[in-house]
Amino acid sequence: MDLTIDRLGVTLAGRAVLHDITATFRPGRVTAILGPNGAGKSTLVKAMAALVAIQSGAIRLGERDVAALDPRDRARRIGYLPQDAAIHWNVPARDVIALGRAQHHAPFAGLSEGDHAAIADAVAATATADLLNRPVNELSGGERARVLLARVLAGAPQWLLADEPLASLDPAHQIDILDRLRARAAAGAGVAIVLHDLVQAGRAADDVLLLKAGRVAAFGPAAQVLTPANLRAVFAIDVSVTADSAGRPLCIPIGRATG
Amino acid sequence: MSRTAKLALLAALVVLLFAASLTAGKIWVPFSAWWSADPLWRIVLELRLPRAVLGLVLGAVLGLSGAVLQGYLRNPLADPAVVGVSSSAALGAVAAIVFGWAGGVFACAMLAAAGSMALLAALTWRTQSAVGFILAGTVLASLSGALTAFLISIAPNPYATAEVIDWLMGALTDRGWADLLPALPFLGIGALLLLLTAPALDALTLGEAAARSMGVRLGRLQALVVLGTGLTVGASVAVTGVVGFVGLVVPHLLRPIFGHRPAALLLPSALGGAALVLAADSLCRLAPGPGEVRLGVAMALIGAPFFLALLLRQRRLAWI
């Protein structure tokens, strides 16, 4: 089902963070949300997960208003991976990943066969099998990030919203995670990720939403959006855009925009 | 050892301490008195049994509410005192004593606890965040503390003052069935509400935004926490006075054994709280001299150094 953002406006603590955002995110594709610090990327993703109040416009999953869905039903449809990777208690990684199934079984019921299968899938996808019994405080930042991603994947949501899932990951794991997210999209799920790395965005994204100061600067297929002119307008940097061996845009930042 | 085995061991410890609580005291009642026609039997039935049952349920709800609050606030230093329930219930009871409503101590304590919980809910329902909850609770605690001190200062006679101070120290002494039975429904319903928070507490391990995205209704959770704590802690303070440290220490002690997952700590903390209060109350009775050490005092005397040692050990682990 499409995730449609229709003339969305969000005001946080009296400051207008998002203005008149309109975009339709399609399932089966990876959409990268890019923009400078403070452009409203995280707020947009939170609004899509119904975590912030909307001042104007609407966000719809198919025909239904996301904010009006029952919270548990919404949790089954939309998985959200926050930027803040806090795990407040020193539980084993296994317990964190199992939380991803909470919206699927009745409260106080144990994990079902289906839950265990989904968890096993998520563990395999994130290569976290060796971490399961380790307390999270003993994990490195990157290992924690993979465990938290496994938590969201375990929920097998129709839509997966991830706020900077690559932060604190080494290049190999960045590539792994992006490949897993692409695989989820190829399997029919919708994937929207906030990214900072233009190279990874070019590698992974089918569509790109460029945000600047709370407005859409450009939205469309990656090859059409990731152009030197767009990136210069949004990030104020000069970027060399070529095509990689697979024909995807390869964006190499050169330096601050001059002139 | 499996979780079930650990729980069974803890339950066995509670049973053992319950039996010890029936036996121990200024007068030791041998187990043989339980089935002979020994007149000591009356001590057990009329004095020790209600007291032991009270110790059991008091310890259980204090341990449980401590575990729930620590999970809800994601802070191992939280306990019912932090959110101001204990001190406002104490304020109600003190008001009843000072103004001479002898029969109204329980009702006044419950009313005051309810009032402060309503105030807490009113102050925090918009934010639904842990920090706001702690701040509002701390304000309520200091406010009720100050009002209690004020009431003591205007007490009409020294006897009332002495009674208040005695009561504030918290004790199970001379509490009978008549004290216990009115509190039981509140304690039971409150404990049930607190147990219902378990799945949401686990989800909160990942923070408020993640928990909400997982389908947790933070407003409903907060209502459960506030109501559950208000009912259990309010009712227990209304019967026994202020007994601190149980809610703080017990989940802390059990975390290394049962793991840090908040929901996995609720039942163990209830059992552990019961064990701690039963043990401490039995020890109180054994103190030399004609009187008894007050339970609240004993708990602080045992609890504070113990807790300090625990913190120091944790810090050493962290630093070296």
Describe the structure concisely for a colleague.
Chain A is α/β, with parallel strands linked by helices and 259 residues long. Chain A has nine helices and twelve strands.
Features:
heterodimer, A: 259 residues, alpha/beta, Rossmann fold, 6-stranded mixed β-sheet, 4-stranded antiparallel β-sheet, 9 helices, 12 strands, 32% helix, globular, B: 320 residues, mainly alpha, ABC transporter involved in vitamin B12 uptake, BtuC, 13 helices
CATH class designation of chain B: Mainly Alpha
Largest interface: A-B, 34 and 21 residues
Enter the CATH topology name of chain A: Rossmann fold
Instruction: Tell me the name of the CATH homologous superfamily of chain B.
Output: ABC transporter involved in vitamin B12 uptake, BtuC
CATH class of chain A: Alpha Beta
Structural class of chain A: alpha/beta
The assigned CATH architecture of chain B is: Orthogonal Bundle
Tell me the helix content of chain B: over 70%
Strand order of the largest sheet of chain A: 6-7-8-3-9-10
Quickly give the structural class of chain B.
mainly alpha
Number of domains of chain A: 1
Give the % helix of chain A.
Answer: 25-40%
Overall number of strands of chain A = 12
N-to-C series of helices and strands of chain A: EEEHEEHEHHHEHEHEEHHEE
Query: In percent terms, what proportion of residues of chain B is strand?
Result: under 5%
| Rg calc of chain A | 18 Å
Poorly predicted spans of chain A: none
Membrane topology (chain B): Multi-pass membrane protein
Pfam families (chain B): FecCD
Subcellular location (chain B): Cell membrane
Protein name (chain B): Iron complex transport system permease protein
Can you describe this structure?
Chain A: Part of the ABC transporter complex HmuTUV involved in hemin import. Responsible for energy coupling to the transport system. The complex is a heterodimer of chains A (259) and B (320). Chain A is α/β, with parallel strands linked by helices. Chain A is built from 9 helices and 12 strands. Chain A has helices spanning 41-48, 71-77, 93-98, 113-126, 141-154, 171-186, 198-204, 222-225, 228-235, and strands at 3-12, 15-25, 30-34, 56-61, 64-65, 78-81, 159-163, 190-194, 207-212, 215-221, 237-243, 249-256. In chain A, strands 6-7-8-3-9-10 form a 6-stranded mixed sheet, sandwiched between helices. Chain A has a 4-stranded antiparallel sheet with strand order 2-1-4-5, with helices on one face. In chain A, helix 4 packs antiparallel against helix 5. The mean pLDDT of chain A is 92. Chain B has 320 residues and is an all-alpha fold. Chain B has helices spanning 3-23, 40-73, 85-98, 105-124, 130-153, 158-168, 177-196, 198-204, 208-213, 218-240, 246-258, 262-286, 295-319. Chain A binds chain B through residues 46, 49, 51, 71-76, 78-82, 84, 86-92, 95-96, 99-100, 102-103, 107-108, 135, 148, 151, 155, and chain B through 74, 198-199, 202-207, 209-210, 212-217, 259-262.
